[in-house]
Amino acid sequence: MLEFLAFMLFSSLETFALFILIIMLFKINPAHYAKRALFVLMLVNLQSYFLQSELDVANLVPVITIIILTLFFTVVVKIPLLPSAFRTILVTVLYGAIKSLLLIILYGDTDVLEQSVRSGYLLQSYSSAVLLIISWLMYKYNFGFSYPYDKLKLKFEYAIVTALMLIFLILISYILYMNQIWLNILFFALNLACFLFFEIQERNSSRSHSS
User: Fold this and answer.
1) pTM more than 0.70
2) How far out from the chain centre does Cα 182 lie?
3) What would the DSSP string read from start to end of the chain?
4) How far, CA to CA in Å, does 66 sit from each of 102, 126, 130, 209?
5) Residues 45 and 12 sit within 8 Å (Cβ to Cβ)
6) Domain limits, the chain
């Protein structure tokens, strides 16, 4: 139980730091979306835990995190698909570079992480702290990109995003079905259901304001 709680705590810190830096790149106040982001990221971290502990496919975790965050920024924050994907990948790669650099500075090699779970959690904490410091500096010096994103919006983007969500769910569900991990299929379905709920909620809200 303690192992699970520790995993969720440090993974939540990690993914939330990613979310903060990505949204700061768009020069958007993260407080407006923090609650919804935390809920979605908790589901992502639950999926990550079961993917690593039950399936031992840790390599899938970063890919899934990128896809979910991209969908979050596209569906919930209303940033077009291409800039959402680009910024999410950019920040994830930056985080990987920071984590690798800190790993070399603190431990020298990856053997320490294999021998000590605590070292891995410390590395996650330090790396997340660096991302949060970068985010704070961006906020302080008003750095980011705030050009009209509507010009980058793809034609029929809503239909494209919906189709991508369904394809993503079907492919991942098939992979997990082959390994009989039903709980992960449920988590993915819940994630996508959240996106659809947020989308419907936003549309209803915008219609009520326009009327």
Assistant:
1) yes
2) 22
3) -HHHHHHHHHHHHHHHHHHHHHHHHTT--GGGTHHHHHHHHHHHHHHHHHIIIII--TTHHHHHHHHHHHHHHHHTS---HHHHHHHHHHHHHHHHHHHHHHHHHHTSSTHHHHH-HHHHHHHHHHHHHHHHHHHHHHHHTT-S--S-GGGGPPTTHHHHHHHHHHHHHHHHHHHHHHTT-HHHHHHHHHHHHHHHHHHHHHHHHHHHHH-
4) 22, 21, 19, 32
5) yes
6) 2-210
What is residue 172's predicted lDDT score, i.e. its pLDDT? 59
Q: What is the pLDDT of residues 107-119, one digit of tens each?
A: 877 777 777 788 8
Q: Using one digit for the tens of pLDDT, what is the confidence trace for 128-181?
A: 999 999 999 998 888 877 656 555 565 665 666 666 666 665 665 565 555 555
Q: d(Cα 30, Cα 144) in Å, to the nearest integer?
A: 13
The answer to whether 125 and 10 have CB atoms below 8 angstroms apart is yes
